[in-house]
Design goal:
about 375 residues; alpha/beta; 7-stranded mixed beta sheet; 15 strands; about 30% strand
Length: about 375
């Protein structure tokens, strides 16, 4: 009787294990990194064909955006896009966000979702590397520091909040989220604490929003200079599972263009976040790595969870089960990119992969439910003060 129960248990695990490949590949095919939102089209012509023309123009612009988001923009700029008929076969689905028509004009905004495989093949065929690992949602804490040195995180005195609310991307390699700024938020963290890198408070706030990492970013307005121009100094620190990373820049312009300068400042910080992650995770689709992985299993539910988590790893290309017992599955896996990139991809699904000592072709895969941002270095003294 015991033997029959064990065999039934193993057959159930086997069936679940065999689903990993199709689930993982399906997740890659429908990943948000292959989605372009807010694609604006404004064309004139014959009313009978305006919408069709708009959709064709929209899908080209959407594909161009997706390619620029996941691959180096300079390499994408040198590519010749396929014909409209070919691009249409790559579209998984699309939405009309809004539209206006007249007798001779069509204005529309679209969302396009592309299938991953043809986009990957197109880039690989042109020897262009790309990134497709999407991070957990990034909680962004924008802080505005005025000419007097007063730093504002919450409320209407934070003049940098509005540009971020407009600019922060929801669909990208690094999707971003802003806090609501309710009473719980204001009691949890001040501008001074955020700028000082108060890790326990930052982590608690990230957990409240279900975010992975936290970006603390500040724009500091200088007094207007003798030439009538004003500087806005940008600093940003991303607190993550890995070592914190930082960015600085300056936007200068006419203070009469105040709102535009703040918007440019947000664009600079967003471009740094997206570019840093993309550069670290560029892969060559023509190359794959493989390794043997042990997966400790204590319950059937645990394996169901692991299977679901693996299904969200787009760089996972194939899985073959080598052996199975009640407590251990051994898998032969292949993936795009190098091992550190694959480990980062797994980490976004709360999975950790440790390689065997002295043999990087073997490893152990475990769930990592206690993922949190890492401890930053001691912060330098900051002159900012909270209003």
């Amino acid at each position: 009787m015991e033997l029959r129960i064990i065999r039934r248990h193993c057959r159930g695990l086997l069936a679940l294990l065999l689903l990993v490949v199709s689930t993982g590949l399906a997740a890659a095919q429908s990943g948000q990194v292959y989605t372009a939102t807010g694609i604006d089209v404004d064309i004139t012509g014959d009313i009978a064909t305006l919408r069709d023309q708009a959709m064709l123009e929209g899908q080209r612009k959407a594909l161009q955006k997706v390619l620029s988001d996941i691959a180096p923009p300079d390499r994408v700029a040198s590519l010749t896009l396929p014909s409209d008929d070919v691009i249409s076969t790559w579209v998984q689905d699309f939405e009309i966000e809004q539209e206006k028509t007249s007798a001779t004009r069509y204005i529309g905004r679209f969302t396009y979702r592309f299938m991953a495989e043809p986009v990957q093949q197109y880039l690989a065929g042109n020897s262009v590397q790309f990134a497709q690992i999407q991070t957990k949602r990034l909680l962004v804490l924008p802080i505005y520091t005025d000419e007097a040195g007063n730093s504002n995180l919450w409320g209407p005195t934070n003049l940098w909040l509005a540009p971020w609310a407009t600019k922060a991307p929801n669909v990208s390699l690094v999707p971003m989220q802003l806090p609501t700024g309710d009473v719980a938020d204001t009691e949890a963290l001040s501008a001074t604490q955020a700028l000082a890198g108060d890790l326990p408070r930052l982590t608690a706030l990230a957990q409240r929003y279900g975010a992975g990492d936290v970006l603390v970013t500040e724009v500091r307005a200088s007094p207007v200079k003798d030439d009538g121009m004003q500087d806005f100094a940008i600093t940003a620190t991303r607190y993550s599972r890995e070592a914190p990373s930082s960015f600085t820049d300056t936007v200068t312009g006419d203070p009469a263009m105040f709102d535009e300068l703040l918007a440019q400042s947000a664009d600079r910080a967003i471009a740094w976040v997206q570019g840093q992650w993309k550069q670290a995770n560029l892969v060559d689709a023509s190359k794959q790595s493989s390794m043997i992985v042990e997966v400790p299993i204590t319950t059937l539910k645990q394996w169901v969870d692991i299977k679901r988590q693996l299904g969200g790893v787009p760089s996972l290309k194939s899985v073959r089960m080598v052996s199975l017992t009640r407590s251990l599955a051994i898998l032969d896996i292949s993936f795009l990119g190098d091992l550190p990139q694959f480990q980062r991809s797994l980490a976004q699904q709360d999975l950790s992969l440790a390689t065997a000592l002295g043999d990087p072709s073997k490893g152990t895969l475990r769930q990592d439910p206690n993922a949190s941002v890492s401890q930053p270095p001691p912060p330098a003294p900051l002159p900012s003060q909270m209003n």
